[in-house]
Design a protein that fits this description.
By secondary structure, the chain is mainly beta. The protein is 9% helix and 47% strand. The protein has 2 helices and 19 strands.
Length: 270
């Protein structure tokens, strides 16, 4: 009974941890790792020369196309924001602008626009165009995390086509706010049938057996404080869990599948 209660309390702690996370990023060049698509580090600017000043922080990403009848295709950036993706829904946002009295681009000009992970789904429901030159407007959308992205850092990725006499500026704050959407079914019989651990307590390694009824599982080992100790993407239903480098204590082996927390079991590591 005590173990079952502890597992239920941990499940609630886990949901709170995943749903209570928020990230604000000012989109500076030095923050995170950047991958450029035709753009480069020279596209970061403080805007003083162009009359457009950063919306947040000290710089923003800028690009303009002053060539008549020529479109710059598939340009953009991928940027690591940090944080940890949980298995839930997120409300995400950032800011765009235009300058030099050029036309602003629209959401239709983007072939890729992601705040989240590579494998989740995102829908942008608020993408206004700036009505004035150098006006910052907020774009917002909903990101539904994929189980494949759980435990990975958030990214910002934007690939777009820049038509002639158009300009774009991108800046923060990039806000990532969680919207809880996790189903939990903690049941002792369900646990026994879906997940088996031997031996437990664990000294160096444990054999983990997951029911073949769980499709494409993701396995996360949490410590007693709810912090991730290991993230595993098993390729078979039976595999070894290596605990040699983990401190002794109470852990929780948690199985996710199909955007749901399926089962959690307590592990004691000696």
């Amino acid at each position: 009974m005590k173990t079952h209660l502890l597992l239920c309390l941990f499940a609630l702690l886990l949901i709170e941890q995943l749903s209570g996370q928020a990230i604000t990023n000012n989109f500076e060049e030095v923050t995170g790792d950047n991958i450029y698509y035709e753009l480069n580090s020279e596209n970061w600017n403080d805007g003083e020369t162009f009359g457009l000043f950063p919306n947040a922080g000290s710089e923003m990403l800028m690009s303009a196309n002053g060539n008549e009848n020529i479109t710059f295709e598939a340009i953009g950036i991928e940027k690591t924001l940090g944080g940890v993706i949980g298995l839930t829904n997120y409300r995400v946002s950032f800011y765009v602008s235009s300058y030099l009295n050029m036309n602003p681009i629209t959401i239709e000009d983007f072939t890729t626009l992601i705040i989240g992970g590579h494998n989740g789904t995102i829908s942008w429901d608020s993408t206004p165009s700036p009505e004035l030159n150098c006006e910052w407007v907020k774009w917002s959308g909903n990101y539904v995390a994929s189980i494949l992205d759980v435990g990975e850092p958030f990214i910002f990725k934007a690939i777009f086509n820049l038509d002639s006499l158009h300009s774009i500026a991108i800046d923060g704050p990039i806000d990532i706010l969680t919207k809880p959407n996790i189903s939990v079914d903690i049941n002792e019989k369900t646990q026994d049938s879906l997940l088996q651990i031997y031996p437990n307590p664990v000294t160096e390694t444990a054999m983990i057996a997951i029911s073949n009824l769980i499709y494409n599982p993701k396995v996360i080992l949490f410590n007693a404080y709810g912090a991730q100790a290991k993230v595993i993407n098993p390729t078979t239903n039976t595999f070894l869990l290596d605990t040699k480098n983990l401190p002794s204590g109470i852990y929780f082996l948690t199985i996710f599948s199909a955007q749901k927390l399926i089962v959690t079991k307590q592990i004691c590591i000696n």
